[in-house]
Amino acid sequence: MSDQTPPPPDPSGHPTPPPRPPHPAQAAPNPAPTVPPPAGWTQPGHAPTPQTSFGKGFFGALFDITFRTFITRRLATVFYVVGLVVIAIAFVGYLIAGLVTAFGAMRFDIATGILLLLGTLVLVPVLSFLAIIVLRFWIEAVVALIAVAENTERTAENTESA
Hints:
162 residues; mainly alpha; 3 helices; 57% helix; 0% strand; flat
């Protein structure tokens, strides 16, 4: 019986089970496991990988006076979180100050107090949102600039060795 011909139908009307796979002893042998190359070994014709800020410790990169390593990518998250906290504190501070000023102004002139209240409730959230956008934009721009510098350095090293 060949693998192409379907098996004869079961007289009871039940579908026939699919054919079983070959016994593991008959299966193809597993390929040999790959072993990583020793440290420092490169393939012929390839340049060694450049030393980046991830290869050095944080303090080693921080005190690298030649500026060959970059720490900006590592600190981008910290700067963003600190910036968000500062913006949140400013948001709460300006909101409270605006509300206190608006309610204080209502004692003297109701229209001025209402305008200050509406201005505070509209401008403080909008300006805080814009501050978050600007913060994110600047951090992304700096990280992209560092990525371009790292990629340019790798390209230059690969070009020199070729």
